[in-house]
Amino acid sequence: MARLMCVTAHPDDEAGTFGGTLRTYRDRGVETCVVCLTPGQAATNRGGAKSDQELADWRRKEFAASCEVLRVSRPIILNYPDGQLYRQELNRIVYDLTMRIREFRPDVIITFGAEGSVSGHPDHSMAGVFATLAFHWAARPNRYADQLKNGSGTHQTRKLYYSTSEFALPNRPPITFAPQSTIIDIGDHLETKITAFKTHKTQAALWPLFEENARKRGRRELFHLAASVKNGSTQPETDLFSDIPVDGD
């Protein structure tokens, strides 16, 4: 079975940025994994939570509900500090992601670009940086060799994509997006994506803005091909798995 991994920063990123693509590929029989680095405990919108820990607990449940809507095969939410990813020891998070790539063995990884997506959020930027290093290092036996025991091996993911866009959210500092190389038609899963986002009830204050911008983007999610095992110039794509053998590894 083909495998798609998505690396995000917060609960709701999986729906808001990648939801249509995740559900579209799951419907095609692709095994999907979302690795969310933080439980979102520092969010401005708190849904009545009385502490960071209570908010984190609620948002973990919301993440699980969203992943059910998106039919994510393997949802994973980690416990790095929300709003503080740029302060974390880089090697620690890249080690963690490298291990998860070697375990799940994806054919394709999707994540954020360094601009931080449509919101420019620094956690989005850092999630993309960590995922990019892990994408490359998971294939190298001289990176985190202690993981290569008990039958575990390196893994070369075939393609890495960054989410991109034609416009940012309103009232943001300047955001420069990577050129789009790949357009995924999510069809009717625009509605699925909106439904998944609305499982994040603590973030209800964001629902109107999200839905307005989601409908403005329409039935497309845009990506930039950042790395590929296939050399040569980039051609426009409509499939993340183009040029990838059906048998995966």
Descriptive notes:
The chain is of the alpha/beta class and 249 residues long. It has a single domain (3-228), classed as LmbE-like (Rossmann fold, 3-Layer(aba) Sandwich). 33% of the residues lie in helices and 16% in strands. It has seven helices and seven strands, in the order E-H-H-E-H-E-H-E-H-E-E-H-H-E. The protein has helices at residues 13-16, 19-27, 52-69, 90-104, 122-137, 189-197, 207-217, and strands at 3-8, 31-36, 74-77, 108-112, 159-164, 182-185, 220-228. The protein has a seven-stranded mixed β-sheet with strand order 3-2-1-4-5-7-6, with helices on both faces. The longest helix has 18 residues, at 52-69.
Q: What does the average pLDDT come to?
A: 95
Q: Element order, helices and strands?
A: EHHEHEHEHEEHHE
Number of domains: 1
Helix/strand-derived category reads alpha/beta
Shape: globular
Q: Tell me the number of helical segments per DSSP (H or I, 4 or more residues long).
A: 7
Strand content: 15-25%
Distance between the termini: 9 Å
CATH superfamily caption? LmbE-like
Strand line-up across the major sheet = 3-2-1-4-5-7-6
- Give the name of the CATH architecture: 3-Layer(aba) Sandwich
Instruction: State the CATH topology.
Output: Rossmann fold
The largest β sheet comes out as: 7 strands, mixed
CATH class: Alpha Beta
Number of strands: 7
How large, in whole angstroms, is the Cα Rg?
17 Å
